[in-house]
Amino acid sequence: MITAAIYTVALSPVRRASRTDTAELARITSEIAERISELNEIRFGSGVDLVSRLASVARADVAAFDMACAVLHGNVEAILDSYAVQGDKAGREKQTMHYRKIKAIDHLRGVFPEAADVIDRIRLSVRHHEDPMSKPDALRESNE
User: Fold this and answer.
1) Which of 18-22, 46-50, 72-76, 105-109 has the lowest mean pLDDT?
2) DSSP letters along 70-116, please?
3) What does the alpha-carbon distance between residue 110 and residue 131 come to, in Å, rounded to a whole number?
4) pLDDT at 33
5) How far apart are CA 94 and CA 83, in angstroms?
6) Which domain holds residue 33?
7) At what angle do helices 94-111 and 83-90 cross, to 10 degrees?
8) Of 130, 117, 28, nearest to 67 (Cα)?
9) Do 37 and 79 belong to one domain?
10) How do residues 30-67 score in pLDDT, each as one tens digit?
11) Phi (first) and psi of residue 123, to 5 degrees
12) How far apart are the first and last CA of the chain?
């Protein structure tokens, strides 16, 4: 019986992938490859361009990669979540989440400026609902 294992950089097994996981990964990979081929048929090199741009973002910042994928397929829920909700999910403070999102958007802007513009517009539409500063920081700033 052949099983696949996912390895870390140190080549130690993290977990064994089940047959179902392996089949699902193969199916999704096949779909992605098919869609990249379709892009190349529509305009020569556009599939390669997309893969290169996504790889560039992934190397720079994994959060930016996740954000790019979400925006490119129309899922803006992760962007609309408040920093407090994002922080709860990641086990971090909302200020940390704000900093990481700004950094991810900056990375994204260099490679996918159109996606970064969409994120900026979404963030502007919800900015009045969210303030990355804590209450003491806001009080201190208002007194200056």
Assistant:
1) 18-22
2) HHHTT--HHHHS-HHHHHHHHTS-HHHHHHHHHHHHHHHHHH-HHHH
3) 25
4) 95
5) 5
6) 15-44
7) 100
8) 117
9) no
10) 999 999 999 999 999 999 999 999 999 999 999 899 88
11) -65, -40
12) 69
Does 6 map to a domain? no
Residue 82 CA, chain-centre distance (Å), reads 16
**Cβ contact 133:95 at 8 Å:** yes
Query: 10 Å Cβ neighbour count for 104?
Result: 22
Residues 38, 86 within the same domain: no
Name the pTM for this structure: 0.65
State the total domains in the chain: 2
Q: Are 132 and 81 contained in the same domain?
A: yes
Q: Is 135 exposed, middle or buried (0-12, 13-18, 19+ CB in 10 A)?
A: exposed
User: Same structural domain for residues 61 and 132?
Assistant: yes
| Residue 4 CB neighbour total at 10 angstroms | 13
How far is residue 127's CA from residue 130's CA, in Å, rounded to a whole number?
5
User: Does residue 85 lie within any of the structural domains?
Assistant: yes
